[in-house]
Design goal:
homodimer, 647 residues, TIM Barrel, 2,3-Dihydroxybiphenyl 1,2-Dioxygenase, domain 1, nine-stranded mixed beta sheet, eight-stranded parallel barrel, 36% helix, 23% strand, metal-binding (chains A, B), DSD (chains A, B)
Chain lengths: 647, 647
């Protein structure tokens, strides 16, 4: 399909936007009129710049408040349109978007609207231009695609067609299932936008919070599939009004945009293929087959059902590595291996593998120099690691290759947003082959009963959240879970959880809405690239034993206010003896309506950057104890202030 | 009145909040429960800390989902309440806020709710505690104060009363005029919050966007006056959920909070006095008189109707001063004076006085070292300058005094947020007395026909907007006008206009919502204090002559895209010859529905920090040409990129 994007979706001057869009290999743009009005050159110069970059100017948008006007205003609008047609011809742009009228002066007479659009289309046809009519979600008389299509049918002019926008339909909870019944050749353009579900006025929602397919919660796949079943073969385009995208570096936005389209196409292709083959939907099967035959939809290797974390690797210098090794040992990890050829050490407990990489000159070490102590790489379990990496690359992740020593393991790997390496590892395989037994440095610690990584949380700059969400959904195959705002003493932190269907791979993305929280300070410390680890939660089946054992080995648990436990007793139906035991061990709790329970405890931060959490899930609890985050963040702030005061 | 504030309204740990609240001389706090739950000490320790700071713990809040429950849940909630009563007794806190139930399990039976609240009040009475019941705007059954009062009346217990919150009433557009009919002694507490009018779900609005009286658009004065007419004599308290306040330095927030209460009290006092004296409201006159006799409402000197800008003073070093002098001369200003004893120069045109202060060691010069080139002081015309300054000081502005030379003018002055000095100047007076004729340095420029300062725009850090809005409204007596979001190539900029009734003093506050706009960069360059000048708009009655004359003297006007003028012709009913003349001179235009017109042109920036604008208002145009801001900001970005590229 021909892929395009509206210029409003990216930051920068128009020239910079075009360069970013071309670099992401789009075919064309929707020219957002204000971008053109601010452009320093003429229409012809813009056409040339776009052409030099291999981009068509596929749509001129928006033309507002046109149809259904009283006659005098209609005449004036025709003059306005003719001036815009002049511009479009200079631009070499064949199609104009007319969005449904929002003017208080407009009249709700569909016949009038149709007649006026007919006249506009007739004028356009004289210049070989076309008009697409779109139902705006807040149009005064027309806000559903059915209404717009009704008027287009009435107007009955070959140069007039329908424009669809997923946001305008799905934001109103309108049913997209009628789209497939519209003749595909009368749909002149399709704009796709996703969005998080927000309880706000639709105009504010539309102007500030749309995002790319795969970043939000609208059913964009069903919407676009309907257009394909209708026989639509035109542009697959993105039109995103988003406050954060306006300031996000535009090369990244453009790459995310293209990734979102490839992901959307592949999801639609799977749906169409199912429809065409299984015969479950006889009425639509021929249309699905035709669409598949006609369209070159993106076909990345199929998504793999990923398993959990195989290993997590920390890139640090020698001094930090020593401190981290001590922390791991206090946490009950055994130092099980030294890399055969590099300054890399392996620590194990249960199914958890932690790697400390201090190899001078390595990428891990470079990452440390740049970001400070953080996670430089992780291994994720995949049934077919090569396919998993190939899918990621097909969806525009950079492939990662590192120099290998003799007989070292070669793991298919890619780069995640923010730069950490994601390796794909076959289930059950370990890193042992690359490691030899280390020289014992200290008495082996007592294991703490930690079994596996429950989740990893990242601290992201605010413009990284949508990038990471799309990466996690399209490439890691995770689904979005709870998204909450947590109160730090110095502002709110948004926390978005993603997990796979099997619930053995969980990621939490934390973004500070304030510049002054510890999370924000941590992100700033890593530079704008973000993606630094915020905390790593490790699972146990007996948190009381674990906390006690590890405490004896020197782990410092974050002290929780006694008032928390009084509130817990007032709030939840918990046994008082249990709560008092929790209190002595600084364990906090959450419960879920279905009877699930979550017990967890936080360590004090490592190097003021990240911490570990020990968690025990019971009874199908599926959250992350967010209810306790405010208490945690206040305790961390208090601990920090005490440390700063030298107490 | 006893003044208090909820701890949720400020940033920081609870200990830091208490210190900030005490420093602003509040009498007490509303203890927001999550702050207590995170507090590291016990209830007794908190009570002691508050007492040591001279603060009472006046309200414990909130207690949720209590009334109207099925019996079993009611019993559990009573147990929960008893545990909270324990805490309150330790805290020495006499009053608990119960907000109306939002639980799906609650029943909409007012009799049941009343009986359960009666039982709660009875239990509270045994410990000499009291219960205040408040209608939450999103309560499941009760969301209006009338409903809450109805239940309180039904419950009929002396330890149960009503709590009022201006936000919960005014956000629902409910009429507060019935409050005066409630017996004042049955109102146990009044929480005040203002808010901007936003089109969003009331819960989101309430949790993220409340602000202090005088910062928003709700009629908080009428609301509070109603409570006073009812005979209420309890706390005047603030409960503000605001994302920005959560990260604003809490000493400033606390000072703004107290200022907002003093302002609110004085506005209410004026209303009550008018009601009591004029006999326009016979029914309420006795209540108004009683309230005035009983209450010690704040009485700052009366607000002065300020006039326009008398002078604007720039603090710079010698080199920047030279450049600025050249800019002023190109703009048609005559160098009319040299200060008698200091390195300070005066430039005049029409009624405009610009001052360049390069005096080594002066505050102006220190401000330059800190912020770079900016406005260090301004003079505002006031009928009674001493009273104007006294009012500001009564409303917590710091008074400014500077060392005076012999026979120098002494102007009453205060410090504005961000640190610039505001002098108050009698109408018609000039600075001439302090200045002597300068040595002519260059041929006198030709005057450009500039008559007065139309408006001054400031670039503020995002946490300065509410602070400045309150300062402008309470101390400068300005009213809030349009508030718009403007699209810079790298993000949105919110622009809020304030003006006096006579329309001769206009301020525009610009806040970047993005970190990457030029406005944001400018704010960062000045450090967090903000308050740097963004641009100064100067009025003319013939913008064509002005622009041409000044251009001949070397003023560089920001080049506007030719596409802008094509769009102007399409969009507005303007004479083509006029538009082409505008195009040659880079003049842009806006029109208002009533036939008003605004022609304006922007200079290129001075030292990459601020620019001048020349404006011509016609036909009662009352805006600021915001429709052209996107074109301006794109042009500034293009100019900056060209300059950076060395072209």
């Amino acid at each position: 399909m021909r892929r395009s994007i509206a210029t409003v979706s990216l930051s920068g001057t128009l020239r910079q936007k075009l360069e970013a869009i071309a670099a992401a290999r789009f075919d064309g743009i929707e020219l957002f009129e204000p971008d053109f009005i601010s452009f320093t050159g003429s229409a012809r110069e813009l056409r040339q710049q776009a052409a030099d970059l291999g981009l068509g100017i596929d749509l001129y948008q928006p033309f507002r408040d046109f149809e259904g006007m009283p006659d005098d205003l209609f005449r004036r609008s025709l003059d306005r349109a003719e001036r815009k047609f002049d511009v479009m011809q200079e631009l070499g742009c064949p199609l104009m978007l007319v969005c449904s009228n929002t003017s208080p002066a407009s009249l709700g007479d569909a016949e009038r609207a149709a007649a006026q659009l007919h006249e506009l289309a007739e004028r356009a046809s004289r210049r070989n231009l076309r008009i697409g009519y779109e139902a705006l979600a807040w149009g005064k008389w027309v806000n559903l695609y059915r209404q717009a299509w009704n008027i287009v049918e009435k107007a009955d002019h070959p140069h007039l067609g329908l424009i669809l926008d997923s946001f305008h339909t799905l934001s109103l909870r309108d049913d997209p299932m009628g789209i497939a019944d519209i003749p595909g050749e009368r749909i002149f353009f399709v704009q796709m936008a996703d969005a998080p579900l927000l309880a706000m006025d639709v105009i504010q929602w539309a102007r500030h919070h749309r995002n790319f397919p795969g970043q939000g919660q609208l059913d964009v796949v069903t919407f676009f599939e309907q257009a394909l079943l209708a026989g639509y073969t035109g542009n697959l385009s993105l039109e995103i009004f988003n406050d954060v995208f306006r300031e996000t570096p535009n090369r990244r936005t453009a790459l995310d945009a293209m990734r979102s389209l490839l992901f959307l196409e592949s999801e639609c292709k799977n749906r169409l293929a199912a429809r065409a083959q299984e015969g479950t939907d006889e009425a639509r099967a021929p249309a699905a087959t035709r669409a598949l035959q006609r369209l070159d939809l993106a076909t990345p290797p199929a998504a793999q059902p990923l398993g959990g974390f195989s290993f997590i690797e920390f890139g640090v210098d020698e001094a930090t590595g020593q401190a981290l090794a001590s922390t791991f040992q206090a946490l009950g990890f055994a130092h099980t291996g030294r890399h055969r050829s590099k300054a890399v050490d392996l620590f194990c407990q249960g199914d958890i593998q932690f790697v400390i990489n201090t190899q001078p000159g390595s990428e891990a070490r470079q990452r440390f120099e740049e970001l400070g102590p953080s996670v430089c790489a992780m291994g994720l379990v995949a049934p077919d690691p090569v396919q998993a990496a190939n899918r990621a690359v097909a969806l525009l992740s950079a492939r990662h290759t590192s120099p290998l020593g003799p007989n070292e393991l070669q793991l298919p790997a890619i780069i995640s947003p923010g730069g950490a390496v994601v390796h794909f590892v076959r289930a059950g395989s370990t890193l042992d082959a690359d490691f030899v037994a280390p020289v014992p440095r200290a008495p082996a610690p007592q294991a703490g009963g930690l079994t596996h990584v429950d989740h990893m949380a990242l601290a992201l700059a605010h413009d990284q959240l949508d990038t990471w969400t799309l990466f996690a959904q399209s490439i890691l195959g995770l689904g979005a879970g709870e998204s909450l705002e947590l109160a730090d003493p110095f502002g709110l932190v948004r926390s978005c959880a993603l997990t796979n269907a099997q619930r053995n791979l969980r990621l939490v993305l934390n973004v500070s809405k304030s510049q002054r929280t510890r999370t924000a300070q941590q992100v700033r410390a890593t530079g704008r690239s973000g993606g630094g680890v915020h905390h790593i939660a490790l699972a146990t089946q007996d948190i009381f034993a674990t906390v006690q054992t590890l405490q004896a080995q020197g782990v410092k648990w974050l002290p929780i206010s006694p008032n928390y436990y009084e509130d817990l007793l007032a709030r939840l139906d918990l046994d008082e003896a249990l709560v008092r035991r929790m209190q002595t061990l600084n364990i906090v709790a959450d419960v879920s309506p279905g009877g699930g329970r979550f017990l967890h405890a936080y360590t004090e931060p490592f190097a003021d950057r990240f911490f570990f959490e020990v968690v025990q899930r019971e009874g199908g609890y599926d959250g992350y104890g967010a209810v306790n985050a405010a208490v945690r963040m206040a305790a961390q702030e208090n601990a920090h202030q005490r440390a700063s005061a030298g107490q």
